[in-house]
Design brief:
alpha/beta; seven-stranded mixed sheet; 20% strand; globular; 437 residues; binds guanosine-5'-diphosphate
Length: 437
């Protein structure tokens, strides 16, 4: 999946454009419960091309002193991590010093850049847009993010400039292996885990087709476990300057998560699941990837007899409602429970790729639904006739019924819980659709 980052000064209209791009698709596919929409990260689809969009403005701190530096780093990170940078300026203000500075960074980067001049709400304002040719970026698109004009041409240009996904080589047996990503904020122990897993063999690095840029997957095949570890290069290539920036770890995580089937989400035992960890966890859920939680640096945590149990319960409350996830306490430096991590990855991948026969689903669920039917809505009774698993990559189920629109989120959650109780879906997000027979 290609990644597009929207950069530019505050107030030029980045989040307005973001909402427009992501909203178009959202309206079509948003038939899901439990996942709140991310205000800064989403998918856009244009003429059959799908890509991810990040609104960098969402990650800027508001305090004035760190502000300029922060945007400069964000542009740099966007250049490093995104496939295309959408640079937005505002017609009426003209070219500011700041715009020139950002344009400078972008010109030197050789990254595909699309310049868009926003707030061109009417024909007269078009004239204001031309001055931005002085930024020295090749093409310029005038738009109004607010009313949508010009966004079609802009999207055509974005799609045309995106790198094409190389088709996977069908002869490559490695293509069928589970793709595993290790994600988490800086310093939780990701590189240490990669090193522990790969040891000296880590130079056996296989470039895999079907990824959009220099992302690298490593073939792991030891102790009876075989999978592709994705984006290991990204983990090891450390850019200390960016360590503190949440934006950096988000951009990194997006890339790794989108490329994976299973995510090993690492947190630091001594700090617990903080807001930044939750943001990454939510990226995994939103992308509907399988997941295990690894609580690392357990050696540093002061324990008594109940600690692990209490810690686990606390974590589950924190990540609810998607709390049916394996939690493993490791010390990577002491090589403790690394095997358990591998075991858990294999298990959740098996759950993730399982296809439950329709007969078994109906045997298990229809009696339960009979017992506890969906609540009547405006005097109408909802009758679920049967359920079947959809041929999607992650577990998704369609419940066929007479009045699907009357089945609300709480009942969908009930159905999801029943699925989890009757079948092993640990570590997997589950999607529920209600459809008319
Ligand atoms: P950001 O800080 O770059 O994310 O900017 P926002 O998307 O929050 O927009 C800043 C302000 O500009 C808001 O008041 C928007 O309503 C307004 N705005 C955004 N796009 C347009 C546009 O195309 N035309 C006009 N006139 N206003 C716009
Ligand atoms: P990354 O930024 O997530 O890749 O984290 P690193 O693997 O670079 O680890 C950050 C720091 O934590 C390093 O100094 C590691 O030696 C240390 N570290 C990693 N795992 C453990 C652990 O299990 N216990 C302790 N005490 N330190 C650890």
């Amino acid at each position: 999946m290609s990644l597009v980052a929207i950069v530019g000064r505050p107030n030029v209209g980045k989040s307005t454009l973001f909402n427009r791009l992501v909203g178009m698709r959202q309206a079509i596919v948003d038939d899901e419960a439990g996942v709140t929409r991310d205000r800064h990260y989403g998918r856009c689809e244009w003429c059959g091309n799908e890509f991810s969009v990040v609104d960098t403005g969402g990650y800027t701190s508001n305090s004035d002193d760190v502000f300029e530096q922060a945007i400069r780093s964000q542009v740099q990170i966007a250049i490093e991590e995104a496939d295309l940078v959408l640079f937005m300026v505002e017609a009426a203000t003209g070219v500011t010093d700041y715009d020139s500075e950002i344009a400078d960074l972008l010109r030197r980067s050789r990254k595909p850049v699309v310049l868009c001049v926003n707030k061109v709400d009417s024909g007269e304002k078009q004239y204001d847009a031309y001055q931005f040719y002085s930024l020295g970026l090749v093409e310029l698109y005038s738009i109004s993010a607010a009313n949508g004009s010009g966004t079609g041409d802009l999207l055509d240009a974005v799609v045309a400039a995106l790198p094409r996904d190389a088709a996977p080589d069908p002869a490559d047996a490695l293509q069928d292996l589970p793709r595993v990503a290790i994600v988490g904020k800086p310093n939780v122990g990701k590189s240490s885990l990669v090193n522990a897993l790969l040891g000296k063999e880590r130079n056996i690095v296989t470039p895999v087709a079907g990824t959009t840029r220099d992302s690298i997957a490593t073939h792991y095949n030891k102790f009876g476990h075989e999978f592709m570890l994705v984006d290991t290069a990204g983990i090891r290539r450390k850019a200390k300057v960016h360590e503190d920036l949440e934006f950096y770890s988000v951009m990194r995580s997006i890339r790794a998560i989108e490329n994976s089937d299973v995510c090993i989400m690492m947190i630091d035992a001594t700090t617990g699941m903080e807001a930044q960890d939750m943001n990454i966890f939510n990226l995994i859920v939103r992308n509907r990837k399988a997941c295990i939680l690894v609580v690392n640096k357990w050696d540093l945590f002061i324990k008594d007899t109940n600690t692990m149990k209490e810690y686990t319960e606390g974590l589950r409350r924190r990540i609810a409602p998607f709390d049916d996830v394996p939690i493993i306490f490791t010390s990577v430096v002491k090589m403790q429970r690394i095997q358990d991590v591998l075991q858990a990855v294999a298990e959740v991948y098996a759950n993730y790729s399982t296809k439950i026969p329709t007969a078994r689903l109906n045997e298990a669920l229809l009696p339960i639904i009979e017992q506890t039917p969906p609540p009547a809505w405006k005097g109408k009774y909802v009758k679920v006739k049967y359920v079947t698993q959809l041929p999607t990559k992650f577990p998704a189920f369609a419940f066929f019924c007479n009045l699907p629109q009357y089945i609300k989120d709480p009942y969908k959650r009930f159905l999801e819980n029943q699925l989890r109780e009757n079948f092993n879906l640990t570590g997997c997000p589950v999607q529920i659709f209600c459809r008319k027979k």
